[in-house]
Amino acid sequence: MKYFLGILFFIVASASAQTSSSSFKKVNLLAVPKPQKPANLIISDIQFADNKEGNNNSSLDALEKAEITFNIDNKGEGNAYSVKLLINDSSNIKGIQFNKIINLGVIEAGASKTVVVPISASMELMAGTSNLNMQVKEGNNFDADPFAVLFKTVEFKKPELLIKEAVFLNKSSSDDALSVGSLIQLSVLVQNNGEGIANNVQVEFVNPAFIFPVDMFKFNIEDLGPGEMKKLDYEFIPNKQYIANNITIKIKVTEKSGKYGIIENKSTPIQIKQGEKIVVNTTSVTAPKAEYKQISLISDVDKNIPINTKKFNNRYAIIFGNEDYSSFQPDLSKEVNVDFAVNDAKIFKEYCEKTLGIPAINIRYVANATYGKMKQNIDWINKLMKNSYGQMEVFFYYAGHGLPDEVTKEAYLIPVDVSGTNLQSAIKLQDVYKALTEYESAGVTAFIDACFSGGARNQEMVKARGVKVVPRGDFIEGGIVAFSASSGNQSSNAFNEQKHGIFTYYLLKALQESKGEMNYKTFWEGLKRTVSFESIKVNSKEQDPQVMVGKLLEKNWGELKFIY
Asked: Which 3 state secondary structure label does DSSP give 345?
């Protein structure tokens, strides 16, 4: 019996030992492999970007997403095992969210890996400079050199939504009396009076009983920037069951965060007899600020844009509206911004598509263009022209700051992220014209609502320049006609009442009144005469537009037409 028990104990002990040995082997299989040759991890091309889901200001804003990217190259002769990225925020700024450990696996000898680190910010984000210390660790201690990524953080800025104006109009009666059965339009002006952007703004019109919407009663405004406004037209019909003396429409305005919405009631009496158009002042009980009295719903050139049913498939347009320089350059005050430049470019784009017959797919429009965006789009049109065999017709539009080089007197267009003291990073106007005329085309027309004297829209870009410089104008070649807003050392000014640059306003006015059916000579004579006169009348400043023509079109440029 003792002998049997001894054999049984031996068998159990052997099995236990085998189990233990098997477990030990599994641990070895999961361990970091010993290198045959050393790895050598090199970090390169480190970038911070907020342009995919952010506002592309190279900073991390509250409620924004961004990412850090970099490359890891294994320059060694051996594989890198169990590679990990460790991230530590030494700045301890509240509101930044990211993964502190990212597993990168194996990077074989001679291989490269691109690492993407997503970053997001909550509403509690604090303003400051974030310092993310990064260390790429390798299982056999062949670590990469540590590095740090610094970027600005921008705290949450509150939007302030309000109904700026509201007007009831009768759309079905020539007498404009509001009555049961009439088609009534309530036009409202939604404004963001705060310092922050209002994202995903939803506006809903809520009716009492027996009031029926004709079409949309919910409207979406993607983004509403500080000071920006949006006009909405809501149409409805009261049926014969409606017996009240007044119509009250509830307007609910919400935005992405759900914290800064408003609810307002707008009322108007409804009359049975015919009468004058009823326009009701429906602003808040609190008196509006004085500076808002001049705000109108829309400029007269922003509406009734002529529609040309004919499309010119070989026409293309590049449009830049550079207004907001202070957001991209914190050392600049808001006064240096170019009033209404974005609206100039936006409405010119609508005229290109509706009046000049340019297909939407052929138009590149950029508001507040950085150097990269401007260069990218200019290169795009140049490459298209290279491969178009002379069939393309191109329109180029720019509204924003311009400056001359004090030494060479060459004119530059200023991207929103470029300082006026660093013209080497600006866009030389001569290079723009060269890109547009390097290859044969059916014609190029340029409109430049900028001056090159250091001043624009009543504010100088570089106040320290002293004496203004008259830029050179002898560099234009090829088949191009270029219309500019001002001459010599003059400034290019705004038309505040119409929310446009005065040059662009009368450019659009000419297209609106003629429906584009005029030649360049007629257009130019009217534009020059009107802008020169109205600038003195409106702004008490001389502003004389000029036209420059490339040698290929010197004899017949005036015969060219906007519509043919």
From this structure: helix
Condensed to tens digits (0 to 9), the pLDDT of residues 479-531 reads 999 999 888 778 788 898 899 999 999 999 999 999 999 999 999 999 999 99
**Distance between CA atoms of 18 and 105, rounded to whole angstroms?**
32
Question: For the chain, which domains are there?
Answer: 41-154 (2.60.40.10), 161-286 (2.60.40.10), 315-559 (3.40.50.1460)
pTM: 0.50
Which residue's entry shows tokens 């350059």? 329
**What is the DSSP secondary structure assignment for residue 472, as one 8-state letter?**
P
What is the Cα–Cα distance from 418 to 461, expressed in whole angstroms?
11
Tokens of 194: 């705060």
Q: Backbone dihedral region of 45: left (phi > 0), alpha (psi from -120 to 50 degrees) or beta?
A: left
Q: How far apart are CA 122 and CA 156, in angstroms?
A: 9
CB 341 within 8 A of CB 417: no
- List residues bridging with 500 in a β-sheet: 495
Across the strands, what pairs with 363?
Answer: 317
Q: What are phi and psi of 293, to 5 degrees?
A: -65, -30
Q: Angle at Cα 511 formed by Cα 505 and Cα 512, nearest 5°?
A: 85
Task: Tell me the pairing of strands 393-399 and 315-321.
Answer: parallel
Work out the pLDDT band at 294, boundaries 50, 70, 90: very low
418-457: pLDDT as tens digits: 987 788 889 999 999 999 999 999 999 999 998 775 445 5
531 token code pair:
């802008």
Closest CA to 362 of 344, 388, 343, 340: 388
